Amino acid sequence: MIGGGPNRPGSGSTMIEAMLARGAFSAGWDQLIRLWELIVMVCRFLWELLRLLSGGG
Prior knowledge:
Layout (H helix, E strand, L loop, with lengths): L12 H42 L3
């Protein structure tokens, strides 16, 4: 068989697994970046609200 069977090195299954793992890893980083952006937006909002309520401009 050319290219090997389902569990042989020439089958490409390890390449697919690596691509899926890389995609999951990058999706995890994307979620962390979005979470960080949300935290920054909330902090900025609270800081501006504090400035507004304290009367400082």
